[in-house]
Design goal:
Number of domains: 5
Structural class: alpha+beta
Number of strands: 18
Shape: globular
Helix content: 25-40%
Low-confidence stretches: 1-194, 207-225
CATH superfamily of the largest domain: Vaccinia Virus protein VP39
């Protein structure tokens, strides 16, 4: 669902594995066991391996050989540390904090082990809290009563904290600080910038749990080994991150899967659980509230996500036995919480199994409420679509938004025809067919992740939604023209324009965000397109950077509410408010008016969005034409849409249920000569 890949198939997908019950992994040191002080010779031997290697330019840190926590501040034999925290689950953290735009480069770098600034066992509750907050740790008198101090030779001045490296300042997690034993100075813990939500969740999902390896000596912090996280644990961590941090599910899931090293079948299951649970959230909560006295909203976010995910498996995934889903949920609750939570989860889910046949919606609900609950959409959004399209179409749109997106390809006509590509993919054992909507589109019904295919790497095709392919067709660029793509990232439409121009002419691909410039350049390089020039800046300022009437074609693929791509981004439906469409429509009108003057007389301006909101589409174009008499709406030929009902006004509106593609709006506006 993220992008246009094969992940996230429904219950019919072969190879989904059912996980059996497991036992809780032992975690870290035993806080109830007295730690023995190592002999002096052993301490001195350890001191030589407690330095870290700093690789600042790459933005990542990798622990040097033997750089495990030295267990500084250990209590003497017989003393029990209070407030000591069991080590986290041995997860990795991303080392660079680079955005998703540079994911391919970031994958080649290894993440630093462990967490930044993790306190040693036995420093006491107050000291641990201050250390986690970034302040120097002071001894807790109550917690450390009877503990021998390491520095018996007298007081030692604390070393000044080292300046933060560039990687720390840019958001990368710092390597853990080590305390030296013996007579060495104790460095003050440094403040490190917290990892982002995406980094934290992806690292947690990848690491699973950790347990001490055999052979750890008394007084030494146990060495950790990575334990593979299950598909359900990865999915739960992503769902909890979306709940707690309002993060984007597709970004968190992509990063978590990159680090989790799951099999293709397990990656598909994790993807299905994340997107399916989010998509069906309203329906799941409606039924869960029947079995939870305090209500779903009052639960801890991860417990709420666990119950939703488990009910989703019971209600919507036929190939997963219900009791297996319950057992896995209970085991996860034990591992992540405690026996009380596990008992509550077990009781709720088993009650649901007993009454599963009675989980139905009332028959007397008003139409909007029924559609909102049955297809899990916000009530205000359903009411809005009923007003715009009628009850039947609104329900069809909502139902389509819960279906997995298709994988569609656009052939690079500079490297071959659609018929040749269809033949090559069939020879590889893939099930493919020609798109009904786009003359260059290919639908892949089975065959795995096409982004790993040699044809993709060689630039034979691009992965793009069918509706999006029609934008360049409406623009109708010709070889030798000068074209402006105002909001170009990630570059799919830019590349399509260049291919239609046979790589002859000039295309300025502009985007607001500098880090997205690399995405556009990568697309052009992969497809061997040399006529694309990238540019960074606000599209509202393009009129000040270029001469008036200097482009033959201008494409404004405007920022929008995104209601046409809900099936790819299911959490979008819950993140938007009724005011969002109105506020974004104001920006769209400003953008249209700003770039219109850059079109040559006789040239074409194409306005497109990936939403189905009339206020952002037909009304925006109607107001533009009212205020710019020099432009006129011009139809363009799409044979597959000749018999498809339209909603009136200028331009063409594609709805998600019509072709199983994204909801898209495209208007072609020609400037009078």
């Amino acid at each position: 669902m993220s992008g246009n890949g094969e992940k996230g198939k429904r219950s019919g997908e072969p190879g989904i594995r059912i996980f059996g019950g497991g036992t809780k992994s032992p975690g870290g040191f035993d806080p109830n066991k007295a730690a023995e002080r190592p002999k002096k010779a052993e301490r001195n031997k350890k001191d030589g391996g407690n330095k870290t290697e700093d690789r600042g330019k790459s933005g990542s840190r990798k622990a040097a050989s033997g750089a495990k926590s030295s267990g500084a501040g250990k209590p003497a034999a017989g003393a029990k540390p209070t407030g000591a925290r069991k080590p986290e689950a041995g997860f990795k953290q991303s080392g660079s904090g680079k955005p998703a735009a540079n994911r391919q480069n970031a994958e080649s770098r290894k993440a630093a082990p462990g967490g930044a600034g993790r306190p040693s066992a036995g420093i006491g509750a107050q000291a641990e809290a201050k250390l986690r907050a970034g302040a120097p740790a002071k001894p807790d008198a109550a917690a450390n009563a009877g503990v021998k101090r390491e520095a018996q030779a007298g007081p030692r001045p604390a070393a000044k904290p080292k300046p933060q490296s560039a990687s720390v300042q840019s958001g990368a997690p710092a390597a853990p600080q080590r305390r030296q034993t013996g007579a060495a100075a104790a460095p003050t813990p440094q403040r490190s910038k917290p990892a982002s939500a995406a980094e934290r969740i992806a690292a947690k999902a990848a690491g699973g749990t950790s347990a001490p390896q055999s052979g750890a000596r008394g007084g030494e912090a146990p060495r950790r080994r990575k334990v593979q996280a299950t598909a359900r644990e990865v999915a739960l961590n992503v769902l909890a991150g979306v709940e707690e941090d309002a993060a984007y599910s597709n970004l968190l899931l992509n990063r978590a899967l990159q680090r989790a090293e799951l099999s293709p079948a397990d990656s598909g299951l994790a993807t299905e659980l994340v997107y399916g649970t989010i998509a069906r959230q309203a329906t799941l909560d409606y039924f869960l509230n029947r079995f939870i006295k305090s209500g779903v909203k009052r639960l801890n976010p991860w417990v709420r996500s666990l119950l939703r995910m488990s009910l989703y498996q019971i209600r919507y995934l036929d190939r997963i036995p219900p009791h297996a889903a319950v057992n896995e949920a209970v085991e996860i609750a034990k591992k992540r919480g405690h026996q009380g939570i596990a008992s509550m989860v077990n009781g709720v889910l088993r009650s649901i199994l007993r009454e599963e046949g009675e989980l139905t919606l009332p028959d007397d609900l008003p139409a909007a409420e029924r559609i909102a609950l049955e297809h899990s959409h916000p009530l205000w959004l359903v009411e809005r679509w009923i007003a715009q399209y009628g009850e039947e179409t609104a329900e069809a749109v909502c139902a389509a938004n819960n279906q997995p997106p298709k994988t569609s390809l656009r052939v690079n006509t500079l490297r071959g025809s659609r018929e040749e590509l269809l033949g090559e993919l069939e020879a590889e054992g893939r099930t493919v067919r020609a798109s009904e909507l786009s003359p260059l589109g290919v639908i892949v019904e089975s065959g795995g992740n096409l982004a790993d295919d040699h044809g993709y790497r060689d630039g034979r095709f691009s992965i793009q939604d069918e509706s999006s392919m029609l934008v360049a067709e409406a623009l109708a660029p010709e070889p030798g023209m000068k074209v402006l793509d105002c909001c170009a990232a990630p570059g799919g439409k830019t590349a399509h324009i260049a291919e239609k121009m046979q790589n002859r002419g000039e295309i300025v691909a502009n985007d607001l965000h500098e880090h997205k410039q690399g995405l556009i350049a990568e697309q052009a390089e992969r497809l061997n397109l040399s006529c694309v020039e990238t540019s960074v800046g606000d599209a509202l300022t393009l009129k000040d950077r270029y001469e008036p009437a200097s482009f033959d074609r201008v494409l404004l693929d405007a920022p929008c509410s995104g209601f046409g791509v809900i099936r790819r981004k299911p959490d979008l439906r819950w993140a938007k408010t009724p005011d969002d469409a109105a506020s974004i429509a104001k920006l769209q009108r400003q953008l249209l008016g700003s770039v219109a003057g850059l079109v040559k007389p006789g040239g074409i301006l194409v306005y497109s969005t990936c939403t189905i909101e009339r206020e952002e589409n037909q009304r925006a174009v109607a107001e533009f034409l009212r205020d710019h008499a020099e432009f006129v709406s011009e139809p363009f030929d799409v044979p597959s849409l000749e018999n498809a009902p339209q909603t009136g006004g200028a331009g063409m509106q594609i709805l998600p249920h019509q072709f199983g593609s994204d909801g898209f709006y495209i208007a072609r506006l020609r400037r009078r000569s």
